[in-house]
Amino acid sequence: MITGQCAMCKAVVESGDAEIAESVNSGIIYLMAFPYILVGVGVYFLYRNWKKLKL
Description:
Blueprint: H1 7-15, H2 18-54
């Protein structure tokens, strides 16, 4: 079963082969990673500054 995240992704995956489906899924994961990385970096800096103010 091949599914996409949105209507456009689903249409591309259904009309293509397995290689295209893998590329679409990799692209989705790639785009999902950046918000988590940015939030993680922000939390790290907030925690670091909080520790400095607490001392």
